[in-house]
Automatic annotation (TrEMBL):
<keyword id="KW-0539">Nucleus</keyword>
<keyword id="KW-0677">Repeat</keyword>
<protein>
    <recommendedName>
        <fullName>Beta-catenin-like protein 1 N-terminal domain-containing protein</fullName>
    </recommendedName>
</protein>
<dbReference type="GO" id="GO:0005681">
    <property type="term" value="C:spliceosomal complex"/>
</dbReference>
<keyword id="KW-0597">Phosphoprotein</keyword>
<dbReference type="Pfam" id="PF08216">
    <property type="entry name" value="CTNNBL"/>
</dbReference>
<feature type="domain" description="Beta-catenin-like protein 1 N-terminal">
    <location>
        <begin position="5"/>
        <end position="343"/>
    </location>
</feature>
<dbReference type="InterPro" id="IPR011989">
    <property type="entry name" value="ARM-like"/>
</dbReference>
<dbReference type="InterPro" id="IPR016024">
    <property type="entry name" value="ARM-type_fold"/>
</dbReference>
<keyword id="KW-0175">Coiled coil</keyword>
<dbReference type="InterPro" id="IPR013180">
    <property type="entry name" value="CTNNBL1_N"/>
</dbReference>
<dbReference type="InterPro" id="IPR039678">
    <property type="entry name" value="CTNNBL1"/>
</dbReference>
Length: 379
């Protein structure tokens, strides 16, 4: 039903309503909520939004907040809804390309520099735009008109991510993201108070400090993975040498932090595994899948990303980086196998039967990093 509504011009009307002055009114808030719901529903809506210049319009509406905070609690909610719309849209490679051409990366970088309320959500947007998304088509794609189907898959997902990472480095985004890597920002307090006989406080969900830390880790991982090795990747690697390898120190600090979190999560998962009553009606494969999701949500995913970063900078960066990593691990009585085992599990979980080029490319890349890292240890 939502696809039919979009095809009948609903998106065009919603976007026109968003552009009307003033910057905020309650109707704009309702429009942003409806738009956010539609974009989360399926891929067809995200594609439709891009084709009616929705990415540019969302960027125009959000540009107001690069140097100014919203003027009311309801306007905060409007801003967050617009960011949600943008993130949902960026799941499509075509929209990542439109985001790049609409100077969205420049806008997000400005928001990070200005340190206003929009900064927190700008990190999430950059995470979406710099990281690849597997091109799995919704069944709703079949409902698109033939003239819209002709635009599907016209953008190479890998190429557009490489272009986005290159642009971020070109506009000096490394100067913005690495200070946030060294000191994760605290979330802004976002609360809405409603009037009446009783005052109710509604917490408006912005990114938490932990979520922002994970976004920063993902962004740096994406820059290492997708930046062209002849031009921009050396600039990323150089960051891990400057100021007496302070970024390497931070990498190991975060590795130890998430290693402790994962150990605690693993203990809880083992208790869950032994609770036979909980798994009545589940197959063994379903049980293991559910428990793996718990582990990923409980810190394993950021630990895996961090440890792949460690391997990448050791293999491709200056020799002093590996020396620093081994020294720091030894000082804390931590075996280098804690890194290798985590990365090996990550590779194993990518699967043997994957058919997506993105996943196969990542598996090949990380397997190669593992091999070269082990060779460095024995040389």
């Amino acid at each position: 039903m939502n696809v039919t509504m979009a095809n009948q011009g609903l998106f065009a009307w919603l976007l026109r309503r968003l552009q009307k002055r003033p910057v905020f009114d309650k109707n704009k808030l309702y429009v942003s909520e409806l738009l956010s719901i539609l974009l989360q529903m399926d891929e067809a809506n995200r594609r439709q939004l891009g084709e009616v210049d929705g990415i540019d319009i969302l960027l125009q509406q959000l540009s107001v907040y690069k140097r100014h905070d919203p003027g009311s609690q309801e306007e905060i909610e409007l801003m967050l809804n617009l960011f949600d719309c943008l993130c949902s849209s960026l799941m499509l490679p075509e929209n990542k390309d439109r985001f790049l051409k609409g100077e969205g990366i420049q806008l997000m970088n400005l928001m990070l520099r200005e340190k206003h309320m929009s900064r927190d959500s700008a990190l999430r947007v950059l995470d979406y735009t710099l990281c690849p998304v597997s091109q799995l088509m919704d069944q709703n794609t079949n409902e698109l008109p033939s003239h819209q189907k002709s635009t599907i898959n016209t953008v190479d997902p890998e190429a557009v991510v490489i272009a986005n990472c290159s642009k971020f480095i070109e506009i000096l985004g490394l100067r913005t993201i690495f200070p946030l890597f060294m000191h994760c920002p605290r979330e802004h307090a976002l609360r809405s108070t409603s009037s009446g006989s009783k005052t109710k406080v509604k917490v408006i969900s912005g990114p938490t400090s932990a979520e922002m830390e994970e976004h920063v880790i993902n962004i740096i991982s994406a820059l290492l993975r997708h930046s062209p090795p002849e031009t921009f990747k050396p600039r990323v690697l150089a960051k891990f040498v400057e100021n007496d390898h302070e970024k390497v120190d931070r990498l190991i600090e975060l590795h130890l932090k998430y290693l402790d979190i994962v150990k605690a999560t693993n203990s809880k998962v083992e208790i869950m595994r032994r609770n036979e009553k909980k798994w009545i009606g589940y197959t063994r494969e379903e049980v293991e899948t559910e428990l793996m999701l718990k582990r990923l949500e409980g810190g394993l995913l950021p630990l895996q990303v961090l440890d792949v970063i460690i391997l990448d900078v050791c293999v491709n960066g200056a020799p002093t980086i590996l020396e620093r990593v081994l020294h720091l691990l030894k000082m804390r009585s931590i075996s280098v196998n804690s890194v290798l085992d985590t990365v090996q599990e990550y590779v194993n979980n990518l699967g043997e039967e994957s058919t997506t080029g993105t996943t196969l490319s990542e598996k090949t890349r990380v397997t190669d990093l593992l091999k070269k890292f082990k060779e460095l240890l024995t040389s």
